[in-house]
Amino acid sequence: MSTSAAVEIESLVKCYGRVPAVDGLSLTIPSGTITSVLGPNGAGKTTTIECCEGYRRPDSGTVRVLGLDPQRDARRLRPRVGVMLQEGAGFYPGARGVELLSHLARLHATPLDVATLVEQLELGDTARTPMRRLSGGQRQRVALAAALVGRPELVFLDEPTAGLDPRMRRSVWDTLSELRAAGVTVVLCTHLIEEAERLADHVVIIHDGQQVAQGSPAELTEDDESTVRFNGRPRLDLASLRDALPEDASVQEVSPGTYVVATTVDPGVLATITSWCAAHDVMPEGLQVGRTSLEDVFIKLTGAEPGTGS
Fold first, then answer.
1. Does 25 reside within a domain?
2. Which of 61, 177, 202, 259 could form a disulfide with 35 if both were Cys (CB 3.0 to 4.6 A apart)?
3. In which broad location class does this protein mainly occur, judging by the first location in its UniProt entry (predicted)?
4. What does the alpha-carbon distance between residue 252 and residue 25 come to, in Å, rounded to a whole number?
5. Where are the beta strands (DSSP E) in the chain?
C-alpha cells in the first residue's frame, strides 16, 4: 500500500444474489484529506464503505484500510477508525447521549475530552434523554461525536449533516475541517454537492458500482464547458433539442421543469436553445449561462440529480 493512501481498493466486487452492487471498483483515498464519495441511489457507495469498515466481506478484489485488511485485521483497525452510520443508527435506543460518549471514551487509550466534544456539537441537552427520544438532528450529532471520541486516524461518515439546520451544519463543517488540520483522514458520503464542494480535497464519483471520476473539485470542473439552465414545463421531450445541439452536448431535466444544457456555450448554441424553446412554446424562465459546477459534472456522468439515494 502507498504510504500516501489511507484507503486503497482494487477491483472490488460485491453482489447481492446475482446483482452486483459494486462491480470491479478501484479507488484510492489520500491520507490527511477530506474525500467525498458521491453517487446516485444504487451506485454502490454505501456497500463500498461498508466493505472498508469491515461490515461486508468482498466477493473478490482487495480492500486495504491504513494498510490492513478490514476483515482479517479488524481488531487492529478498530481503535484507529471511527464510523458514523447513516441516520445515527447502531446505538441502543435506551442509552443517553452523553453517558454513551463517556462510556465510549473509557474504551480508548487517548480519547478526546467528552465535555469539549459535547460543547462543540451542542449535545448538553442529550445528557438525560434516551436515544429513541432524540430528534433526528440530535441523533446525528451524537453519532458524529461517537465516531470522533476515540481520536481516530481515519473516520467514515455517512450523511453526517442530514437533518441538521444550516447553523448546525456549518458547525459540523468546521469540526471536519479541524479534523483534517489535525491530520485525520475523513471519508464523507453525502448527497449535498455544496458540502462536497466546500469541504472536500478529493471527490470520487461512483456510478453502477464503478468509479467514473475522481479528483479535486477544481480538477473535475476545469474543462472548457459551460452550462445553460432554464425552467419550463416538466417532462419536455428533449430529443429534438439534443439533435440540434453539438454532438458533445448533454441535456438533462435535473428536477421537474428545470433543464441544464452542458457544452461549450457560444452565441450560436444559445440561439439554438432559445429558438427551440420558441418553436415548442416554452418560455425559458430564469435562463442563465454559467461555468460547469460539480453538480453539473455529477449529472452529466450519472444522469441523476444529487440527493436521490444512498
1. yes
2. 202
3. membrane
4. 26
5. 5-16, 19-30, 34-38, 60-65, 81-84, 154-158, 185-189, 202-207, 210-215, 226-231, 250-255, 258-263, 285-291
| Distance, CA of 52 to CA of 75 (rounded, Å) | 14
Burial-class residue 116 by CB neighbours within 10 Å (0-12, 13-18, 19+).
exposed
Partners of 82 in beta bridges: 155
Phi, psi of 198 (to 5 degrees): -75, -40
Q: The CATH number of the domain where 284 resides is what?
A: 3.30.70
Question: How many beta carbons lie within 10 A of that of residue 159, not counting itself?
Answer: 21
pLDDT at 290: 81
pLDDT digits (tens, 9 = 90+) for 138-166: 888 999 999 999 999 999 998 899 888 89
Per the structure, the count of domains in the chain is 2
Q: Which residues of the chain have pLDDT under 70?
A: 1-3, 87-90, 223-225, 305-310
